[in-house]
Amino acid sequence: TTTRAPVPTNPPQTTHAHGTQHMTTTTTQAPYIPNLGGDANSFCRNRADGHYRDPANCGMFYQCAMNLGFHEPCPPGTVFNEAIIACDFPFRVAACQNYSP
Length: 101
Known about the structure:
Layout: E1 6-8, E2 13-15, E3 21-23, E4 27-29, H1 38-44, E5 50-54, E6 57-65, E7 68-73, E8 79-81, E9 86-88
C-alpha cells in the first residue's frame, strides 16, 4: 500500500488595507507513486519500451516504459498478440492456440 503525506508549502502573506497581515497555509499532496510490483519491473528491466506477451500466461501482457513495468490483463477469452500489439483471439496467436483461462 502506498500512502501520501501532506507537504506544507510556504505560506503566502496578505496585507489588508488597514495594515494587518494575515497568513494563509496551503497544503498539497505529495506525488502518488504506484506500487508497480517487483515482477513487472524485473521483466521490463533493460527492455525497450513497448508491449510484451507474458511468457507464462497468454492472457496477460507487460507494458514497459523507461525500465518500469505494468502487468496488464487482456479481456476474458483473448490473448496478447505481439504482432498487432493488442489482445486478440487465441487462434490468431500461434503460441497461444490452446490457451484457456
